Amino acid sequence: MTDNDLVARELVREYDRAYRELNRERIRENHRRFRESNPDYYRNYKSPLNLKTKASKALSEREWTKRNPEKHKAQQVVNRAIRNREISREPCEVCGVSGKLASGQSAVHAHHDDYLKPLEVRWLCPKHHSEYHRHLRDRRKG
Q1: Structure confidence by residue, pLDDT tens digits, 4-33
Q2: In what helix (H) or strand (E) does residue 111 lie, and over which residues does it extend?
Q3: pTM of this prediction?
Q4: Diameter of the chain measured on Cα atoms
Q5: For 12-33, b where at least 16 C-beta lie within 10 A, e where not — what string?
């Protein structure tokens, strides 16, 4: 980050602070109207069930990471390579879909056949990725 970036960031902070101070009542009124028109928003967001769900999800992700260190490491290597533009996501090998889903997530997953070769992946959409794993499970059982 350059000195110019730091100066610009500080100027934006000062402007935001001044704006909030000058428009305090207006901002409060907007918040009040939002809370009145969306009563379930805060109730659901801060509900014990939602907080418990978030906590249990985080816990299960940590447990999965502990149980599968090689898989987690392979995921990290792929994600880092994508971020650093060493590799790029390709369309699904089966149906050719690419891009992003409505949720903002990528429409293709990187599937590892061998976790010791983390950059050797096959690109599959969520549908074909789960079908591929189902096929692998069926082969192991039968």
Answers
A1: 777 888 888 899 999 999 999 999 999 999
A2: strand 109-112
A3: 0.58
A4: 71
A5: eeeeeeeeeeeeeeeeeeeeee
